[in-house]
Amino acid sequence: MDFARVLRRRRMVRLHTGEAVPMEDLERVAHALTRAPSAGWAQGVSGILVTDRDRIAAVAAACGEDEHASRGLGRWLSSAAAHLVICVEPQRYRDRYGEPDKNPSSLDPIPWWWVDGGASLMAVLLAAVDAGISAGFLGGHRAQGARAILEIPDEVDVLGVVTLGPPADDRPSSSLRRERRTDAIRHEHW
Ligand SMILES: Cc1cc2nc3c(=O)[nH]c(=O)nc-3n(C[C@H](O)[C@H](O)[C@H](O)COP(=O)(O)O)c2cc1C
Hints:
The protein is α+β, with helices and mostly antiparallel strands. About 35% of the residues lie in helices and about 15% in strands. It has a 4-stranded antiparallel beta sheet.
């Protein structure tokens, strides 16, 4: 698909049809995560692709799906064909920035793993559009319940859960009442 079209068509979907998606398409979308840049090429972003129905249901429950559904928004997480849980591994950055061509203090002002996690997230979201699969993102503030179910080690942080699957009719987020900002690009100076 033409890149401008992919970019325009991307939107967060918060309800899927429950239909399955071929594993090779899911793998392709998941692997887009590795195409993002990373600080020092530390490559400290990884994903857990979950397709087992019981595990999807368990993650959904642990991430508060009942509360979401009680607001009339449907069973977003359990309607997905797959979850891609995006993880960041700060230790990989500390190791890399401890190497002779790097300075560990570079990690102080901005912990690069969060930046790289965002870049990987966007790569996955765009790959999903390109593959004709819709995607949504549940932020890590609501996704920590997935840790125990997926046996994620303490030293690994969960950025959030990408839901993948064909889109169903979802209720648009209240955030979308906000207008698209038109002054985000300045020229020559602030
Ligand atoms: C870091 C981040 C966290 C987000 N967390 C959530 C979330 O927990 N639940 C949710 O429904 N949407 C979440 N979103 C989606 C945003 O609400 C959405 O991207 C925004 O409203 C713009 O809509 P669009 O992506 O469809 O263009 C998150 C997006 C980002 C980038």
